[in-house]
Amino acid sequence: MKLPSLAIAACATLLLPLTACGGSARAGDGSTVTVTVGYQSKTINTVTAGTLLRSLGSFEKQLDALGDGTRYKVDWQDYATGAPITAQMTAGKIDIGSMGDFPLLINAARGKQLGAPTHLVSVTGYNLRGGLNTIVTAPDSKLTSLDDLKGKKVSTSVGSAADGTLVRALQRAGIDPVDGIEKLNQQPAVGASALSAGSADALSQFVAWPGLLAYQGKAKALYDGAQLNLPTFHGVTAREDFAKKRPAVLEAFLKAQAEATDYLDAHPVAAAEKVAEATGLPAEVVYLYNGAHGISTFDPAVKPQLVDALKEDVSVLKAAKLTGDIDVDSFVDDRYVRKALGSSYAKRLAAAPAPAASEVWPRDAEQTLTFATPAELLAYTARHKDGVRAAYVPDATTGTLWFADRAVWVADGEDLLPFVAPSTARAYVDAHGGARVITYADALGRQS
């Protein structure tokens, strides 16, 4: 089959595998239709539309249940970021894709620009305060606040949700996001290497990179994205022509996404293990974000506050000259997910995130333990030092979950309070006479 020159150029430019240029939602021999799904396996905030969904086989089962006499084949294509998914979607080579909020807007803009409109049809994971993005530094870095980033080299992926967090955080700190720092536009893995090599002073990235680097002892948090108190999320986008031609297929995907979401909620540890097995990420890192009290809440419903946040994001992309005006209302189309989920949609739409809680994953256990306070978690951990696989605590200010042994701890009288970043810990200490920062070892020792 002869491909249009635009598609050939797109594939050559992005260095995609040959299978990525084979077409999508196409009939192979007159009886088989291939549905192409672009996903980001290691962007674990999208697992209910990608990694976990694929491992459960839910989409294939829903397609088999259509009973329309058509044989369906799902072509799963894995990418590191949303940009190549958008390139393939606008070239007509991917039918359904998942990506973060800022890439979704670029997806909308590119689709309209190229006459291949796309629509946001559902949400995967979200955090209403913005905790999915984090700025980190090297473990031995002397940087302790955003002010320290002035004139420094900061790695991020331009146009990503993490870049949006960086821009907004710098603006709030009174630092020009263009001239105040030296921004390095790098893919997450490249940025992580740059941080380790010392060629970048800080790294602003999305899930699961900050948590992974912290877990590995290769980074420490400098800024918790939840300090912005602005929602961040990932979602599912579909080509308009595909949705109109095969609405039943799109609805089958959204039903499967809901099944994967329910599985994750009911079996968070097993889901983390499945995602870890498929991605090579440590299960402890996956659970930090996707666990029962993780940073991310999963729900396919398109909540109004997320749409409002998307509208606020447009100005950041326009200022960076990555897009022009974007009609968010016309981009958002929840008709398919409403139909797919039926009467349960209203309940999902009204659902709120689970309250933050301290949690321990005991070694060799199939479920975690939840504690009412961080101090209770410390007491348990102190008694079972060799029996704890991972311990998680919520930031006392933002609620963002973090590894207990990577958190900044503050002693305030008898209270022991964890924080993701040193600046939030310092702000608490400054506002509470007698409070002081202590080490994790000291915090454990107080409970042993």
Structural category is alpha+beta
CATH superfamily of the largest domain: Periplasmic binding protein-like II
Could you tell me the radius of gyration in angstroms? Answer: 22 Å
Strand content: 15-25%
* Intertermini distance: 70 Å
Number of domains: 3
Low-pLDDT runs = 1-23
By DSSP (H or I, 4+ residues per run), the number of helices equals 19
In the CATH classification, which architecture of the largest domain applies?
3-Layer(aba) Sandwich
Structure summary, number of beta strands? 19
- Give the averaged pLDDT, no decimals: 93
CATH class of the largest domain: Alpha Beta
Determine the CATH topology of the largest domain: D-Maltodextrin-Binding Protein, domain 2
Shape: globular
The major pleated sheet works out as: 7 strands, mixed
Helix content: 25-40%
Domain SsuA/THI5-like: 85-271
Protein name: Nitrate ABC transporter, periplasmic protein
Signal peptide: 1-27
Organism: Streptomyces phaeofaciens
